[in-house]
Every structure is written in structure tokens, then in C-alpha cells.
From TrEMBL:
Residues 15-128 form the PafC HTH domain. This is Proteasome accessory factor C. One of its GO terms (cellular component) is proteasome complex. It comes from Micromonospora violae. PANTHER family: PROTEIN PAFC, PTHR34580. Residues 149-215 form the WYL domain. Residues 246-316 form the WCX domain.
Amino acid sequence: MTRPAARNGSRASADRLARLLNLVPYLLARPGIEIAEAAGDLGVTERQLREDLELLWVCGLPGYGPGDLIDMAFDGDRVTITYDAGIDRPLRLTPDEALALVVALRMLAETPGVANREAVERALAKIEDAGDLVGAPVAVRLPGDTPRVEALRAAVEGGKALGITYYTAARDETTERVIDPLRMLMVGGRAYVEAWCRRAEAVRLFRADRIDAITELDEPATVPPQAVPHDLTEGVFRPSADLPLITVRIGRGERWITEYYPCERVEADGDQWLVSLRVTDLGWARRFVLGLGPEVTVVAPVELAEQVRATAAAALDAYAVPAPTTVPAPTTVPRSPEVDAERVPPGDPAVAGRTQ
């Protein structure tokens, strides 16, 4: 079994939705237009336009009966909208619809990485004014909203350089860095700051929850001309041919790996799967494999297999150290009835505090 490359279906769906929303008013203004001409104006092929028209035939108002759906007439290669299902009428929102839109816009405004936050806030103000929703008792807070994220966002908006203490999971190390922030991002439910790292002399992504300390410096952020933001349309980690390729054999209980990590190849091998994926470095791969269950075996590279074997052997050797055989005899102290009456359960915080 070979795992197919993932397709960006959400982007294609969004593009088609925008095209369909523009298609009806376009056709209403040009009754009897030739399909070839319309396809050229809209920047699509004739085949794609015909598929869009077939989809419009099943779109319309709730009820979705014959009198509710968009209708059109064809005369050879010409098309005319005969019923637009009210799409040409001004938009009127119910209070519930307006409130739902306000909540969505407020969430969008709080999301790090929004390209034009001011435009979102202007649209929000217009909807609130039109629907008498100013000051609506609705508070929106994203799961990633923390004082750390707020400090990072303020630094980005204020154009300040930052000193940070950062934990790098791939190398299992903590470093001190000075960064010049470029933008805030929200990817996969996690907040990131993208910045020019003066230590690495390159653009880097820093996960907000791995920043242990932040110091705003008394100097503006200085981003060199060669600092180019990353393309994150397909996620934060983008495997490339120059990264190490590892292959592991996994059992049924570890198949979640193929859903969580981008894999180059997944092949069935009886009840087990052979999985190949790119990693940032073999140090991360070693910790990754050691953290999995017993149904995982490293197939390649040999270097990784040896590292995993050596680390596992060292752990077993640590357990093999014999414990001290001589235990000091306990001191017996006469116990009074009052003390027995005040005994507390083992591990009680108060007792632990007195005995340390």
C-alpha cells in the first residue's frame, strides 16, 4: 500500500465557493452569454464552468423544492439565469445570524497571523452598528491566548526586538536568542512567532508555548532584506529531500503515526506496516522511536537503529544496579494515644512539609 499525496481540498473548495457566488450576478448581468465567453471572463475552462452550472442547479433557498432552487435556460451554447433564488436582494441578517457572525469575526481578530486585522475590526464595527449588537455580552478567547502570546503580539505590532529563552524539542535543548519579529501565526491550533533569529542568522518559527521567558529590548526590530517569511499553506513542517529519511515497522497500535506525521511511504507487511518519513535530525528520531510502544522496529538507517539500541541498553543497565542491602534499623519511639488519634494518611502535604 502506497499512501497518496495529500490534496489541498479545502483551498479548492473555497476557490469554487467564491467562483459560484460571483457566477450568478455575472450571468444575471449578461443574459444569453456564450459559455466560452463566460469561461474566458471568469478564468476557468468551459468544462469547469459547465460543472459549476450543474452545481448551481441544486443550490437555492431552504426547502430546496422546484420553486426554491436557482434555475437557468440553455440555448445551444448560451446560458441565461431564469430564477436567482433571491441572490440579488440585499443581505438581511436575523439577530442570531448577526450574533454568530460577530462571534466569528471577533475570533478572527484575535487569531495571530491575520493579514489585515484592521479590516476585520472595521467589518465587525459595521455589523455591530447595523444589528444593534455593540457591546454584546460575548467574550471570545482562543485556546492559545496566554500572556505570552499577548506579549509576542504586542512586540510584533510595536516593532520591538525580543530576547527569548527557547526550548528546541528537536534537539532537546534550551537556548538564549535575540529575535526580530516578523509576524504572529496560528497553525494547527498553536501560536507561533516568525522572526529573524540573530543567533541562527535566518528566519525561524518559534512556538509560543516553548518560549520560557520574554524580554522586550530597548531597540527596534531590524529585519534584513533577505528575511523572507515561510510558506505555511501546507503546515509548519515541510519535508524535503535533504532531511534524513527513516523507515520503521509498526504494529496496529502505532498506525496513528501515519495520520499525525507526513509520510513518504506506507506499505502493508502482513499485520504490520512499513512507514518512511523525513525527520529534522536523527536525535529527534531516536527520542521519537523510544517514546513509542514495543510494536516499533527501526528498519533504516542503521545509525538510528544503533542509537536506539544503545540508549535502551543504557536504560536497562541503570535498572540492573543492585539496591543497597543494608537498611538502617528503624528507631522505635513510644506512641501515646493522642498521637495515634492524630495520625494522617501517607503522603499528606502537611506531614511532608514537616519532615523535609
